[in-house]
Amino acid sequence: MHNKIHILVVLIISLVSCDETHVFDEYQTTSNGWKIDQPATFTMTPPDTLNTYNLFINLRSTNSFPYSNLFLITKMQFPHGKVITDTLEYRMAFPNGEWMGEGFSDVKENKLWYKEGIIFSEDGEYTLEIFQAMRENGTVEGDEILAGITEVGFRIEKPKTR
Q: PROSITE patterns under this entry (predicted)?
């Protein structure tokens, strides 16, 4: 049994290390739901100010996610103080109710496009905050706690060469 676990760990490390496109990949766990006032925050220093990169928001969700779509607000702070805020909407389920994403159990992972062909033109540390912005139809106040989102991630990749 111990030998099987060792082989599994080596296999997982091998698969992860084969991913040559990733530059930054980090997750934050949400405890008992994603609170509206607690953004997932990621701080990174991109490798250069010349090349283009693709940015993704990664989400792991369960069947307890109560909606078929997801609204997020992102705030990207640049090293010299500039802040870019975006409101984003993603479809999380097909019209028949089946969850989108990858996974065999009740946990699905979604890799969501955030920005494409980005050049980090300022040298230094960038910070990305990701807020959930969900609310029920007909209400003004947002969901204080969004059920079903277990982890929020941010990933920077080099564009794939063809």
A: PROKAR_LIPOPROTEIN (PS51257)
